[in-house]
Amino acid sequence: MSLSALMELLLAKVFIKPCTITESEFYERARAEHPEFADRILAPFWGQIQLSSPEQKEALTHQDPTSINAALQAQEGTAEQLVASRAETESPQADRQPFFGKKIDTDLHIVLENVTAGFVKPNTLDVKLGARLWDDDARPEKRQRLDKVSMETTSHDLGFRIAGMRVWQPEGHGKSPKSPGAYKNFDKVYGRTFTADTIRRGFEDFFFEGPSHKRKLSALRRGILTLCEAEVQEIEQQLEKLETRIYSASILFVYEGDNGALDCAFSAFEELQRKEDAAEEAVGTDAEGEEELEEEEEDMPKLHAVKLIDFAHAHWTPGEGRDENMLKGVRSVRRILGQMLKDHEKD
Question: How many angstroms separate the first and last alpha carbons of the chain?
Fold first, then answer.
């Protein structure tokens, strides 16, 4: 395989993100001091690189393999070494398409596993957490501006707001049965139109199928919703164990938007579940059998992912207790998803 081809393959699997020192340090400490938290709810963290020249940064914007490889080589790292180091530094993931948020001017970049890699048509939802959105070092004018955003959106009452999402519309979704498949994008303005009483409609736009006047939650989509609700509960449980102060982080939801691929992925998931249940009931399951199940899980088509992302304003704060600002939003999301599932059971 040529170097260019290797880099293209690598760049399909990672997201290289400009970051603050605070964010890089948060990932480093998560991996070193809180591996369960890092492994379960963060995007796998591959390390950091410096991209200093305008050419390198431009290459990053367009994901140009040759120029990015030059940046890695300048730091005595090549694509092959970066891939090899992955096995030694297992831990976080993040969205390759940061379609929300502002660019920052920095040479420091973190390399994260791309949560959307492996999906045919990934549906993505960014849920911004926290009623308070500013860090302690924020200037008064920034605090006022973000407090205004919080008060005017669901952030204040629920501890979260929908920052945006991207949903695949299959072929024939439009007025014409021959209309091609296409993504429907929902920007931050869309998320700011909801109130605490109407926010559920935003999650229905993401998880349900069909136009708004006749939306339905298919059995497959209900399965996805069940899995996502369980993942949010896991995030809640992990945060309750930790002492952090995290501002303006997000929950990133991803699931397969192509119905054919979703059907195949769910079938593979259910088959693996049956094998795992059988292995648990079997007496003396050997290590080889467990290894085979783990390999099968790694080779499965992508079904869904739910991860915490965006830690530019994140701190480990021993002795200060749980992060109730973050937890307020996580609990609200879990409650809404759970209610959607209960209401669907009644239908």
Answer: 53
